[in-house]
Amino acid sequence: MVEEKILIVDDNAEVLEKTQNLLSQVGYSVIPCHSGEDALAFLNKERVDLVLLDINMPSLNGYEVCLRIRQSYALDDLPIIFLTSREDSDSVTKGFHAGASDFVSKNALSDILLSRVNVHIRLAKTLRFLREISLTDDLTGCYNRRHAMYSLREWFARSKRYGTPFSLIYFDLNGLKSINDKFGHQAGDLLLRTVVSSCKKLLRESDMLFRMGGDEFMVLCPDTEKRGALICAERMQEAVKGVTIVDQTVTFAYGIAHSSEDFKDMDEMLHCADAAMYECKKKMHTAKK
Hints:
single chain; alpha/beta; 5-stranded parallel β-sheet; 11 strands
């Protein structure tokens, strides 16, 4: 049984019903939307595996909807196929510039549409799998530094172009070296895995947790204001306090940076979060004295 979700966006009720029936018959889970606004509202709450999108719609047309989707979803993360009667070169070119993955004519045979849908879903799955295994930290299962820099670069560029807000939380565990020295690296490894597991339970599906190296981590929070990132950091801090390895409890210092602070580049933003984290660490050290 196919479990992939497909979002169909078309203001023509007849086309919407016909396409929904076709895809449902082969096992896809299909969500119909009659407008671009409804589709964007749905994607703010739910993830899908592919979007079938009409171009000619009132209010928001397909190009505008595609551009807005691309503010949150990269080309290799969510395929968007324009299902349209407009097949002239200008329309096709404009669609690809807006971020479309493919075009299928509404007059095409059903088998052609099903084949294109299948190919793009399989391709996106393969790309996600390859990305996961190449960009995941083997020890903890969270993302590695390479993926952190790629994701930060992508979100920084997206924020500059579209004004999409995001926050960074940079945190550093206290006491990992002490645990490694007293109990060995197996205990330290257990600490890292347990901390990651505790933090992941509190994060949203859209948030990304990265191990930057050693005992340093970063959380990238899309569409999040600085206040929201602060709440997230405090909740993770509380969760980590409950972690005990042998007789050692765990704490961490953190720093936050937000895209609205007009950084000249992503390195400056990362440095700001890192510097704020070290200030937090100094205060924690002073408080212990």
